[in-house]
Each structure stands twice: as structure tokens, then as C-alpha cells.
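User: Quick sanity check before I run a bigger batch. Here is a single chain. Can you write out its predicted 3D structure?
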Amino acid sequence: MSINTALAYRSFGPPDVVLHLQDEDLSPLPRHLARVRMLFAPINPSDLIPITGAYRHRTRLPCTAGYEGVGVVTAAPVSAKHLLGRRVLPLRGCGTWQRYLDCDPDLLIPVPDDVPDDIAARAYINPMAAQILLKTWPVRGKTVLLTGAGSVCANLLADWSFREGADSVSGVYRNPVHIDRLNTLGVQPLSEDALDGIKSTAGRADIVFDALGGPIASLILASLRPGVPFVGYGLLSGMPVTPVGEGGRLERFHLRDTLVGLSPLEWRQRFDELWPKLDERIMGPSRRFDLLDWRDALAFVRESGRRQKPVLVFS
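Assistant: Done. Predicted structure follows.
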């Protein structure tokens, strides 16, 4: 019988402390499910934050980590035989950090032949979030302010904002290594240490997409004109936004919430729209780590100013 190796956790805490590799025999595949052999899975903040217990109210333990990745269908029910041997995204549930994943075939997303593996593996969390954010809060003719500007999602938001007619985009960065990339994207860089500049820029902004939370986000929210939307979609700082005074209008975005009630057809249509937008230039390069070297991958995640996305390889 084949062995499945998974990166899982039984309690909440620092990922490098509570995560562990576990080997289990592969159980017989239920007749209504498909089995996917994973190829690659990225490591995102959205994968790591739940492990700490930040969302413990919606995370059941024990749990296999990981929310996105790409794999190949090795077994499927008769209704999904056309997927056998195809590369797919096995999404809408945790558990992609394992060699084999059993899932609902209706929710599998076939990957176009011209999309490389390392781009396909990262096609969900950041690109889908950016696409939905810009549909929900249109930016045509607006002055846009981004935080966490060195992140992939912020880079996608910047590039796609210009495509959709934004007047200007400014981005708050932590590490100066991101300045050249932001300039290339047409983004006005703002150091997170330049508090006066951030306040001034926030005062002119028509919309904010915030990935940070914490003191910088709270400063921006308080500096906005009344009613200007401040959309919080991440907590990279690990701290919440604290509203002070009138300021802007705080709104929350959780990708998972936008998927509730979505039919399989609507789910696939979202990716049909997304695939042509994916650009290796914006997504950036990846750095691969074998699953057995997951601790090295987590150490790489913590490196400030890194320009590569860590990706687990299921060899």
C-alpha cells in the first residue's frame, strides 16, 4: 500500500514548533472522490496564520496545512474520468501540504497546458483575492493606496489597478529592496518609516487595500477622508486595525467568505477569467524546497526582502 506524507499540526502555535511530518497508509479512495498527487504547493502568510491559532474558531484540529497548490489526478469516479492524468488545482479546503489529496472532483480546476507548474501552484490565494477585491471595490479614476507593497498580492493589485483605469497607485513598503520593483510597476513607493508621507498620501487616497493591520494601518485609516473605503484583507503585522476618530470606512475582506454558495460552474468560470491575467513578471520567481526540508522553507519565509516565493515540492 502507498504511503501518504503530510505536514500537519495537532495544536496551535508557531508553525516551526507545531508542524510535523506524518506518514500514513493511503486509505481506499471513496467512489465519489478523486485522488490528486501533489506536485507543488506555495507557502503563503494565509497558510501560516491559521496555524498560530488566529482563526481557531474555523480551524478544526488535527489539520493538514496548506490552502493551494497543483497536482495530477491519479484516480477519479466515472463522471470525472476526463480528468485522469490532468494537472489540477485541488482547492476550497485545507490540506494541500501532503503527497496525496482526496477531493470533490466537481471542485477541481483543470490547469491550461500553457501555464507553468510554479505559476499554477500560486494561482489561487493572491490572484483570486486581487481579482475579487478589484471587482468589489472598482478603482477606475481613483487614487489607490496599498500597504504590504512588497507582497505578490499587492503587486497584482497595483498592476491590475492600472489596467482598470486607476489614476495613481502608492505603496507602503518595509524593505528598500522592493523600491525598484514598485517603480517598474508605476507605484509611488512609501517607506513605512515615513509617517508624515503616509498620512499625507492617505489624505488624498480614494481607496486603501491593506495587507498589514497594526499601527501603520491604523494611522492610514485615521488619516483618510470620511467615508473613503479602507479594505483590510490581511494581517501581516499580526495585529488588528484600531479605528481612531472619524477617518475612513473600515471594511473587511476574507477570500473564503466570497466562495460561500458558489456553484462548481461559477467556481470554474472565475479561473477562466483569471488564467489569462497571470503574468510571471508580476508573480515573480519561486524557490523550491523538498517537503522533507520544510523547516528550511519556513526559515526562508522569515527572510526580510526576499524576492522569491517558497514552494514545497512533493518528490
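The longest strand covers residues 34-42.

User: Great, the batch can go ahead then.
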